Amino acid sequence: MRAERLPLTRLLLKGILVLVLCCGALACGGESDRSDRSVAARSGGAGASSSGTENAVEPDARTAGPTQGDTAAAEETAPRPIDVGDSVEFEDVEVSATPPEEEASGTTPDAEPTDPAPDPPEPEPERSRLEFSTDPGEATVVIENQETGTRRSKETPATFEVPPGLYSWSVKKEGYASKESRRAINLETQREYTQRIDLVSVSGGGAYLARADRAYQQNKYRQAISLYQQVPEPSAEQDPTDFLRAQGRLGRIHWKQEGNYEAAIQAYRNVIEYDEARYGAYLNLAQIHFETENYGEVLENLDRVSQLKYSIPAQNQKRLRISLRARYLRGRALFQQAKDERTRNRRSKALRANQEFQGFLSSVPPDLQSTFSRQIREAQQKKEEVRTLLREELR
Q1: Of 133, 194, 129, 186, nearest to 160 (Cα)?
Q2: How far apart are the C-alpha atoms of 273 and 279, rounded to whole Å?
Q3: Which run of H or E residues covers position 260?
């Protein structure tokens, strides 16, 4: 009897277990269905009615969806599509006059662009000055920059404004021997250079003159003197250029190389006889007479130099150089006369000498300070000696 009850009990337990499992499955399915219906209601569950389908299923008590109140609340909270026929009011939003990024940068789109600050002017490039004169004139002078190979040419008298550098030159004229520089002109260390070139004729006495010049450049002074003396004196119809140049070179060799003042004075007088406008000859005579202590002749020749220097253009620096040399030499001659004299003119000549020294020192421009450095030192020393001499006169 007990054996029959045992199987029945097992069957009953199995049936209860199956029933419990079925109920659990149904409960899980209902919860999933209600969750799906809630999501559909929030995302626009009303779409089912707009599609035109009428197949509505009546839910049972276990699988019933949300109530009508819950559906209405979901429809109120869910976003509704805007129909083009609806009257929609938008909230007024104040728009900034400038975009946020422009406000941050402090610029406005309509602001006129301001002109950039102008670039500072470039400094003027440094320029050097080359001056050429020839005797005779109207010769063609060519200068060449040794670093760049750039060439420029003009007819003499010629002035070139060029960048600093090393330059060579050459001169040509029909009927005259060509000339060129023996070494380059360094315009890095000096800003102005003046060159006077004497051209030699290839006819008449020009052949002797060319040979004499070569001997002179080689320091063969006796041979040069002999050749210069063979240059013939010109007739009234001939050009005296070759003869004047030969006499000028003779005067320089007699004066500087031989110390023969008489021969030098005669040679310079030969030059003046043919051309009274040769201020260089008068200046050389004044220097020779100063060395021979003939101060009266010094002052007379310097007076001629002062008159003739105005034939040189004022913008030509050669005129300034001649004027400075004349003032310095005049001061020296006046001071020597004041020292030697024992008359009442001594004081007046000392004052004139002081005036010439002062005028010389105040007239030397900065670019010629190195050229006249020796004369500047001596003029300053002579000024002190003049003051000493004047103090002695007052005693």
Answers
A1: 129
A2: 12
A3: none
Instruction: Give the DSSP letter of residue 110.
Output: T
> Is the CATH number of domain 125-199 2.60.40?
yes
What's the sign of the alpha-carbon dihedral 161, 162, 167, 169?
negative
**In degrees rounded to 5, what are phi and psi of residue 239?**
-75, 125
Using CA atoms, how far residue 199 sits from 15, 186, 368, in Å, is 147, 23, 28
Q: How far apart are CA 282 and CA 279, in angstroms?
A: 5
Q: Where are the domains of the chain?
A: 125-199, 200-268
Q: pLDDT digit string (tens) for 152-196?
A: 999 999 999 888 888 999 999 887 878 888 888 888 777 788 888
The answer to whether 172 touches 200, Cβ cutoff 8 Å, is no
Residue with tokens 């005129």: 319
The single residue listed with the structure tokens 């005669």 is 266
For the domain made up of 200-268, the CATH class stated in words is: mainly alpha
Q: CA-to-CA distance for 21 and 321, rounded, in angstroms?
A: 133
Read off the pTM: 0.54
